[in-house]
Amino acid sequence: MSDGKQIWVLVEVLAGAVKPVSLEALHAGTTLAGELGAAVTAVVCTAPGVAVPEAVATNGASRVLHIQHAALEAFNSLALIEALAPQIQAQNPEVVMMGATNHGKELAPALAAKLGVGLATDCIALDVEGGVLKARRPVYAGKAHITFQFGDTRPCILTLRPNVFRSGETPAGKTVPVEPVTAEIAGNGLRLKVKEVVQAAGRKLDITEARIIVSGGMGMQKPENFSLLEELAEVLGAAVGASRPVVDNGWREYSNQVGQTGRTVSPDLYIACGISGAVQHLAGMSSSRCIVAINKDPNAPIFDVADYGIVGDVLEILPVMTAEFKKVLHK
């Protein structure tokens, strides 16, 4: 490490496991560290007595900072700010990065405001030119990209879009030490206290973090037919998405909506089922690595962005696809 520079990566842990986007952030951090002449610190915030998952200490960080307090048992942005801000001010990292998850999107701007520093959200590329950090992110619903150049204030705070900064290699597996720190959070100073966290029934994968998404539109004809998507998703280990009209009609929850007014996704595989391809929907999924479209209208706009297209009745095609994938994936 040169000049004691640090890059902090805030790691999200859910049910004892590290969220994949946090491992991607660690990979991005180690790559950036080489360009900045810095070392990576993985930061985990939990309640006392909660163990740090092994994956945190074996994914490229030089050390693990384990910040503990009873108020950190569940996600609470106010408690996290109170726990993180003093540590950041004392140790002065160059960069603080985290995944652009629901939690990251809430925490990052609040933390930047607390510290009075620069923020770049939903980043898809990071670069260093002449010792200056630059971050690129989409704007105008993905129609253009903008590059941020950070000034002299530190740290630079970044959130990283899931499924963009993945490592192509398995980490070497070197285990680094975990440094426990007890946070000082005044109980009467928190305006928000989390009493209970209720997991939505049937919720499996967050579509923004899923590597495969099976998404349905009005071509599915009725909400009951989404069971065909659920079956295919189960076989592929995928998340189920939906177009805005589907959500507006109450067929699926808003958290499933892909598009300009919904969620932006970048999976390896996006299967669009009965989706015409309105520009608002394309804005949320066009960065997918591979797009497969199923629609009975050969002139549907979705075929203009699809890598593979199937013209036909989606209700007839989906059961066939599911059966074939079962044969290949579950021999």
Structural features, described:
With 331 residues, the chain is α/β, with parallel strands linked by helices. The chain has 2 domains: 6-189, HUPs (Rossmann fold); 212-329, TPP-binding domain (Rossmann fold). Helix content is 27%, strand content 26%. The protein has 8 helices and 17 strands. It has helices at residues 20-36, 77-91, 102-115, 226-236, 244-248, 279-285, 302-305, 314-329; strands spanning 6-11, 13-14, 17-18, 39-46, 63-68, 95-99, 119-123, 125-129, 132-139, 144-149, 156-160, 178-182, 212-216, 239-242, 269-273, 290-295, 308-311. It has a 7-stranded parallel β-sheet, with helices on both faces. A 5-stranded parallel β-sheet has the order 14-13-15-16-17. Strands 8-9-10 form a 3-stranded antiparallel β-sheet. A hairpin with a 2-residue loop joins strand 8 and strand 9. Helix 2 crosses helix 3 (102-115). The radius of gyration is 21 Å and the shape is globular. The N and C termini lie far apart (48 Å).
Question: What coarse outline follows from CA principal-axis ratios?
Answer: globular
What is the CATH topology classification name of the largest domain? Rossmann fold
What number of domains?
A: 2
Query: Terminal Cα separation, in Å?
Result: 48 Å
Percent helix among the residues?
25-40%
- By secondary-structure content and strand pairing, the structural class works out as alpha/beta
By DSSP, the count of extended strands is 17
Task: Enumerate the spans where pLDDT stays under 50 for 5 or more consecutive residues.
Answer: none
**Residue-averaged pLDDT, rounded?**
90
**What is the CATH architecture term of the largest domain?**
3-Layer(aba) Sandwich
Radius of gyration: 21 Å
